Amino acid sequence: MNLSTPTDYAEEIISGNRAALSRAITFAESKKPEHQEFAQKLIHDLLPHTGKSKRIAITGVPGAGKSTFIEAFGLFLIHNSYKVAVLAVDPSSKISRGSILGDKTRMEELSKEELAFIRPSATGGSLGGITARTFEALLLCEAAGFDVILVETVGVGQSETLVKDITDFFLYLQVAGTGDDLQGIKRGIMEMADLIFLNKVDLFDAQMIQDSKMDLHRALQFLPKTDSGWKRKILKGSGYSNLGIDEVWQEITNYFELIENNGFLSELRQKQKLSRINDYLEEMLLQKIRTSISIQEERLKWEKQLHNNEITPYELAEKMLEKYFHST
Amino acid sequence: MNLSTPTDYAEEIISGNRAALSRAITFAESKKPEHQEFAQKLIHDLLPHTGKSKRIAITGVPGAGKSTFIEAFGLFLIHNSYKVAVLAVDPSSKISRGSILGDKTRMEELSKEELAFIRPSATGGSLGGITARTFEALLLCEAAGFDVILVETVGVGQSETLVKDITDFFLYLQVAGTGDDLQGIKRGIMEMADLIFLNKVDLFDAQMIQDSKMDLHRALQFLPKTDSGWKRKILKGSGYSNLGIDEVWQEITNYFELIENNGFLSELRQKQKLSRINDYLEEMLLQKIRTSISIQEERLKWEKQLHNNEITPYELAEKMLEKYFHST
Predict the structure, then answer these.
(1) How far apart are CA A129 and CA B300, in angstroms?
(2) Which of A92, A184, A277 sits opposite B316 (nearest CB)?
(3) Of the candidates A89, B10, B204, B232, which lies 20 to 30 Å from A20 by C-alpha distance?
């Protein structure tokens, strides 16, 4: 493969070249300015080919069975002739880089399929940066013709908000009987969820599952309506035993039918793009400040003042902005 | 209370006026520019009175018993004549605002104590914003003379990274027997932790606790050394039954002795301030862009191009920066 321009890459990606897609995502994730520039030109060229996939967030606490579910769900989709990309987002690995995603045995069957593409998303840097990078990977996968893009979050907490921001549908995996332990995070997550899948039903007795499902139904009643007009659903099944997977897809299909018809999808996609602007602004600003000679000249003096409690971090930020930027 | 200037507030806060402290934190959390300006002036005035507390992060998954532990630990400190402030951070409540912190029964005993001050931290806005706001609340509490500031995270995930950024000591609460379920997040958290407290030992049998402790010890061996030169510790006990609380304080005291002597504390405090600068830069930049007339004039045109897939979010961000800012 001897590709030298963004246009070359664009053609290869559209024609389904996986190696070109992989390398393009690597460029988008790179911190080198020349890679970034290349990736951004490429994404620009590919824009007309984006927007056609279903973008689905899949989350759940560790132990909810995400990998197994995604493997089963991905295989189901592939057997129905859909092309599936899986992007895994792990903001917590900022410190212990790649500890989770290094696990090569995850989704073993799915990763062998020709119609599947599995890619951990780069971490590092700011949170906005993670979302922006995942969004770029998502656009590249769309241009490559994937019909369904599953964005998996690893861990719980802030990462849900991040993927919620760039996806159309939010699927939350829950396990029966863990409701009590998770009371702290349940409400926030449930508000984001379009579908809650009670996973691992084969491991619990029927009564416990029924109880959990009723608890969830009760909890749903107290939530505000979704912006999309969709009524949140609860399904049960098992990724491991392949139970209920088809129903999940049926609901997702129903959801997209609804939001395509009521105009919400178009609105949402524009919102997804708009929210990325702030991510980029932040990155660009920090980059400009790092490379500004006049700021770097003053920096040591300012940092000393900061150390001596003569100025606050807020005041230092103000000085930097004043020094560097002039409004028009 | 009739306080009109930042200087008035500063005096009241230093003299221990709780109402003034509360209101100052509210100003710092406010999105109104005039409140922000007031708060920043106040913080500037108070700077010489900051830096003297022990800043302690307390985290753990929901169900680990954080509230009960903090109540017990806070009361222990107060009985030893320390003044204790508790700041609770909950980034996930961006959507369901205050659902968790609205729970008034939390830390009931502690909240009655004269030497204690309990305050949920405002959410809303960017993640950087949350950290900046919590840091400001922390500085204000320090100026008010609190000896120990406990920064509690609600939920798990990204919030740990946030509080790690503004605290000196990281205490992680773990419950015996949940190790397996939490494998996904354990390593990242354990790397951040200075002390792991195996909580709720009164609920489990001795063997299970021993097993959990050994698992933790084994896991610790594989972690890189801490930057502070501190050796990570594991303790066990119970917030509910007041077991092991004094040992936690003993280890914290040992830790601070170490980092005061080896210079790490001074280094760390400067780092805490430096990392806030980016938070403020981001906020200020977004604020400037929102209020830039020339940008707002072009904005609709740009958003249409974005919608029509003619430009990428990255390119739009570039246009905004070019329009508004001129490097010097």
Answers:
(1) 25
(2) A277
(3) A89
